[in-house]
Amino acid sequence: MDFDFLKKTTLYKNHIKLGAKMEPFSGFLMPFQYDSSLVEHMSVRKNVGIFDISHMGKFFLHGKDSKSLLQYITTNNLSEIKSGQAQYSCLINKLGGIIDDLVIYKFSEEKFLLIINASNIEKNKKWIKYHIKNDKKNIQFLDKSNDYSIISIQGPNSFFSIQKLTDISLKKIPFYSFNIGKFAGIKDILISYTGYTGSKGVEIYIPNEYAEYIWKEILRIGSSFSIQPCGLLSRNSLRLEMGYRLYGQDLDENTTPIEAGLSWITKFKKDFLAKEILQKQKKEGNHKKFLSFLIEEKGKIPRFGYHLKDKNGKILGKVTSGVYSPILKKGIGLGFIFKNVKEEKHIFISIRNKNIPIKIVKLPFVDICNS
């Protein structure tokens, strides 16, 4: 198959040399796996793994109106974090639908970095620029998506495996915070205690010209810890064990944060777009309902689009994400019960025309100790 039309990250050649299986993802040709996805998954849970996530979008907003704009078009409250901290949030439309889920890095009251999903870069850019222009905001907007690479090191040994490459004490960076300093001899590198796996880890933001050098240095210094290159398949199973949502499957513009079980990042003490709609939705509860579940029956794995049914076979909802959990050794999934559907005590998943009982559970599926 011809993949020439797809974008490639700066680290593409490094993935090929390491024998990665490359597949299309969000307009990029990305490493799906190097070893088996099970080996990669367990390396992150038990030791340390390294990911290239350079496909993610990177927007800088700088100016006196930056904070007020972000407060208006996102659901979380930036007043709750200090400079040097990061925050998970949702970018929403006029009806409260999720345009994207993102992480916002706060440098100061006037400077922010937005990390967004690769598939939504152009859509997000258009929406943010529209509000800057329409609301006459004093903001400098810079799309640096093509200028920076991101390397993610995840796992209980993540800090130890790369500490020799920086003078920054990685264990002293608080969760969802960041520091800027020298890494592998390169100045002004942003290092954050963040990640999409649930295991301890850091994400490193690097100008493209240094990306290959730093990637190789991490693999070199991390070899004593048997650091494992990891692809998107293991990243998906890792994020699902934590119940982290994936845009385009669990989240979209027809789903609100309330419906997606993200009320915890929807702060009604501030004014924001579609606030009244989301308040009403939360109060009345008349909306589709997010759920997380596991399948006790051995060998049964939920997949995107599978139907959720009642005992009589009536369709109640659908699965949006599903995978085999290497830790639980069971199938786990996320999904929705449709709006105006009566809640049932017993719910089944339809797999190959057979209705299999599911167990509704709270997130995360797996309790990871990161102390």
Overview of this protein structure:
The chain has 371 residues and is of the alpha+beta class. The chain is built from eight helices and 20 strands. The strands form four sheets. A seven-stranded antiparallel beta sheet has the order 19-18-15-16-17-14-20. A six-stranded mixed beta sheet has the order 10-11-12-9-3-13, sandwiched between helices. Strands 5-6-7-4-8 form a five-stranded antiparallel beta sheet, with helices on one face.
List keywords for this structure.
single chain, 371 residues, alpha+beta, Gyrase A, domain 2, Alpha-Beta Plaits, Elongation Factor Tu (Ef-tu), domain 3, 3 domains, seven-stranded antiparallel β-sheet, six-stranded mixed β-sheet, 20 strands, 32% strand
CATH superfamily of the largest domain: Probable tRNA modification gtpase trme, domain 1
* Biggest beta-sheet profile: 7 strands, antiparallel
CATH domain class of the largest domain = Alpha Beta
Roughly how many Å apart are the termini?
A: 45 Å
Strand content: 25-35%
Share of residues in helices:
10-25%
- Tally of helical segments: 8
Low-confidence stretches: none
Domains, number:
3
Average pLDDT level: 97
Oligomer: single chain
How are the elements arranged and paired?
Blueprint lengths: L11 H6 L3 E5 L2 E6 L3 H10 L2 E4 L4 E6 L3 H8 L11 E8 L5 E11 L2 E6 L4 H14 L5 E4 L4 E7 L3 H5 L15 E6 L2 E7 L8 E7 H15 L5 E2 L2 H11 L32 H10 L4 E7 L11 E3 L5 E11 L4 E8 L10 E4 L2 E4 L1 E2 L11
Parallel strand pairs: 3-13
Antiparallel strand pairs: 1-2, 3-9, 4-7, 4-8, 5-6, 6-7, 9-12, 10-11, 11-12, 14-17, 14-20, 15-16, 15-18, 16-17, 18-19
Helix pairs in contact: 2-7
